[in-house]
């Protein structure tokens, strides 16, 4: 079963960029969809970007055109390049399968504020 570790979050000004990374150790991800999710306290976790095993990509409307998901099967990793960040993007970000199939990691916190 996979153990997920996300990294790359932090404090950034509006309009700035961040690149999130996740590693799924103990799992072979090449046949799995991978996704990035975010969660605001008190709300449901939301899928914002997904990438299928063959590279088909989907985005939530709220991030389309600003975020880019990618994957590296050899490293069992996924990445989320986030550009043009807005205060509304402030959240804890998680990586998992799409649909989710491994225990959730701790997430990485992104704060967009001036």
What is this structure's SSE topology?
Elements lengths: L2 E5 L2 E3 L5 E8 L8 E6 L6 E6 L5 E3 L7 E6 L4 E6 L8 E7 L10 E5 L2
Parallel strand pairs: 2-10
Antiparallel strand pairs: 1-3, 3-8, 4-5, 4-9, 5-6, 7-8, 9-10
Would you write up a description of this structure?
The protein is mainly β and about 110 residues long. About 0% of the residues lie in helices and about 50% in strands. It contains no helices and ten strands. The strands form two sheets. Strands 2-10-9-4-5-6 form a six-stranded mixed β-sheet, with no helix packed on it. It has a four-stranded antiparallel β-sheet with strand order 1-3-8-7, with no helix packed on it. A hairpin with a 4-residue loop joins strand 7 and strand 8. The radius of gyration is 13 Å and the shape is globular. The mean pLDDT is about 95.
Give the gist of this structure.
The protein has 114 residues and is an all-beta fold. The protein is built from no helices and ten strands. The protein is globular and about 40 Å long.
Low-confidence stretches: none
* Distance between the ends: 40 Å
Question: What percentage of the residues does DSSP assign to strands (E)?
Answer: over 45%
Order of helices and strands: EEEEEEEEEE
How many distinct beta strands? Answer: 10
- Helical/strand content category: mainly beta
**Structural Rg:** 13 Å
Give me the number of helical elements. 0
């Amino acid at each position: 079963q996979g153990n997920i570790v996300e990294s790359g979050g932090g404090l950034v000004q509006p309009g700035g960029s961040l690149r999130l990374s996740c590693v799924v150790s103990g799992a072979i991800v090449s046949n799995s969809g991978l996704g990035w999710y975010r969660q605001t306290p008190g709300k449901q976790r939301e899928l914002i970007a997904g990438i299928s095993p063959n590279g088909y990509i989907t985005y939530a409307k709220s991030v389309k055109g600003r975020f880019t998901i990618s994957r590296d099967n050899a490293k069992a990793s996924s990445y989320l390049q986030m550009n043009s960040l807005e205060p509304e993007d402030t959240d804890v970000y998680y990586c998992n399968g799409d649909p989710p199939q491994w225990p959730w990691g701790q997430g990485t916190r992104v704060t967009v504020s001036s």
